[in-house]
TrEMBL record:
Gene3D superfamilies linked: 3.40.190.290, Winged helix-like DNA-binding domain superfamily/Winged helix DNA-binding domain
This protein's UniProt keywords: DNA-binding, Transcription, Transcription regulation
A molecular-function term among this protein's GO annotations: DNA binding
GO cellular component, one term: cytosol
Protein species of origin: Streptomyces venezuelae
Any Pfam family the entry gives: LysR_substrate
InterPro entries on file: HTH-type_LysR_regulators (IPR050950), LysR_HTH_N (IPR000847), LysR_subst-bd (IPR005119), WH-like_DNA-bd_sf (IPR036388), WH_DNA-bd_sf (IPR036390)
Similarity section: Belongs to the LysR transcriptional regulatory family.
This protein's record includes keyword Protein biosynthesis: no
Name of the protein in its database record: LysR family transcriptional regulator
UniProt domain HTH lysR-type: residue ranges: 1-58
Length: 300
């Protein structure tokens, strides 16, 4: 039994198709088929049901699958352990990021790390807070920059890296445009524009509205803050966003902070606390924390 045979077997089960598995592994489809046939002959059982459109594991294949995955994981961990002792980082680090991280140059931060460690591949994925939390829980991500309202999930380690005040994005001719601050209740009759309901910022806004006893439904939501800014500029409503997510270029706009308590969007760096983090991911996390702490005015 060879490691590559187990690797091919797991890939075919995961993809349900020999051709897709071969493409993912960067080998030929006949090569994948031949190696799995050899494995089946060695074990004396068929591992895959090839009769349907989708290739599925047989009962014996289902029994072998968790052990095959464990063996491959052990090989990866062994290589990482050796590399760590040798001072070499390698592998892939999967990083998640919410759309509204405008005040942090996350791509630049990751590119800087990759330039220093060319044997590490860094993959960046954008999504909503809920999607990123699920991906961290499922092991699809190693770390994520995300917004959270309330206590972080217990399976995550987190560092608050930015506490950004929420602001009302108003047209310059609005009656509140020249105010030093505004209360949520003063905007209760307006059309409110905000981030989607699964974002940390939106949950903070919803909690603040409820605390103030305001029943003001959000008229429009979008995951891209600039869309909300553009709609506010056109007079469609008042956009409520973290200050750092707004880069107003329109002279007709004003950003007015809120006087209500705890009107902040908090940005966290989060990573799993319930499993071992490989050295490459640990290095990216530390690099991010170091760069964030070195920033002037890095969130108060």
């Amino acid at each position: 039994m060879e490691i590559r045979q187990l690797e091919y077997f797991v890939a075919v089960v995961e993809d349900g198709n020999f051709t897709r598995a071969a493409a993912r592994l960067h080998v030929t489809q006949p090569g994948v088929s031949a190696q799995i046939r050899r494995l089946e002959r060695e074990l004396g059982y068929e591992l895959l049901d090839r009769s349907g459109r989708t290739v599925r594991p047989t009962a014996v294949g289902e029994a072998l699958l968790p052990y095959a995955k464990a063996a491959l994981a052990a090989i990866r961990d062994a290589r990482l352990a050796v590399d760590q002792v040798a001072g070499l980082l390698r592998g892939q680090v999967n990083v998640g990021m919410v759309t509204v991280v405008a005040t942090l140059d996350v791509p630049g931060m990751l590119a800087e790390f990759q330039a220093e460690h060319p044997t590490v591949e860094v993959a960046l994925r954008q999504g909503s807070t809920d999607d990123l939390v699920d991906a961290l829980k499922d092991g699809e991500l190693d770390m994520a920059f995300l917004g959270l309202a309330g206590e972080p999930p217990s399976f995550l380690r987190t560092e608050v890296i930015l506490a950004d005040p929420l602001v009302a994005v108003l047209r310059a001719d609005d009656e509140y445009a020249e105010r030093e601050s505004v209360l949520l209740k003063e905007l209760a009759s307006r059309q409110l524009l905000s981030l989607p309901s699964d974002s940390g910022t939106r949950r903070q806004l919803d909690a603040s509205l409820a605390m103030a006893g305001i029943d003001a439904p959000i008229a429009f939501s979008a995951s891209d803050p600039q869309v909300l800014v553009d709609m506010a500029a056109r007079g469609f409503g008042v956009a409520i966003l973290p200050r750092g997510a707004v880069r107003p270029t329109d002279e007709e706009l004003r950003l007015v902070p809120f006087a209500d308590p705890d009107m902040h969007g908090r940005l966290y760096l989060a990573w799993p606390d319930d499993r071992t983090i490989d050295p490459a991911a640990q290095a990216v996390i530390q690099h991010a924390l170091d760069r964030i702490q070195a920033r002037p005015h890095s969130g108060t």
